[in-house]
Amino acid sequence: MLLRLIILFASCQALTGWADEPDPASFRIDGNAGSGQLIYRTYCLTCHGETGAGDGPSGKRLRPRPYDLSNVTNMAGVTDWTIYMAIKEGGQRVGKSVLMTSWKGLLSEQDIQDVAAYVRTLAAPEAERE
Ligand code: HEC
Q1: Coil, strand, or helix at residue 98?
Q2: Which of 8, 19, 58, 91 is deepest in the core (most CB within 10 A)?
Q3: Whose CA is nearest to atom 40 of ligand 1?
Q4: Hey, which bits of the chain come out as E strands?
Q5: Residue 77: which H helix or E strand, with range?
Q6: pLDDT in tens, 47-62
Q7: Is 64 in the pocket of ligand 1 (CB under 6 A)?
Q8: To which H or E segment does residue 74 belong?
Q9: Which strand (E) or helix (H) includes residue 3?
Q10: pLDDT band, residue 130 (cuts 50/70/90)
């Protein structure tokens, strides 16, 4: 009985560990950019700036400077997975600066998805912006 419990516990651990890490190739952001905008303005604007250019009051002083989230060409090369994981787990998880901290302690899964969706709109062609 005890052994069975231990095995059950171990397999749950393995399962949740796996569930925490979405597959980089198939992961798609599934959030509401409208709700994400408020989260962005509250927590992210100070570094990433109003338009995402990395020129917020605190962002200007950082080295490296926050990446230009509004640059259409650059952002086309950044996957949904990278955006989501940078926000959730922090910059280091995606090979970026440690100054980009993990937000999973403060933001819910839905918040992370919403703000990730908003980040995507910063580099969208004018016509697609909400
Ligand atoms: C203390 C300043 C700071 C705050 C606050 C901050 N960031 Fe960052 N962020 C950075 C830095 C520095 C980097 C690493 C350099 C880079 O790639 O922009 C970064 C990286 C990122 C990246 C990765 C960009 C890429 O191309 O890989 C995303 C996405 C991002 N931040 C979104 C957010 C969101 C959303 C928030 C709010 C929940 C936020 N950041 C809050 C400083 C900050």
Answers
A1: coil
A2: 91
A3: 44
A4: none
A5: none
A6: 999 999 999 999 999 9
A7: yes
A8: helix 72-76
A9: helix 2-20
A10: low
Which tokens belong to 28?
Answer: 């798609």
Q: Which two tokens stand for residue 58?
A: 């605190």
Ligand 1 centre distance from Cα of residue 10 (Å): 34
pLDDT at site 12: 53
Secondary element (H or E) of residue 86? helix 80-89
Highest mean pLDDT range out of 20-24, 63-67, 70-74, 124-128?
70-74
117 within ligand 1 shell (Cβ under 6 A): no
Ligand 1 atom at minimal distance to the Cα of residue 94 = 27
User: Which residue segments constitute the domains of the chain, with CATH numbers given?
Assistant: 29-128 (1.10.760.10)
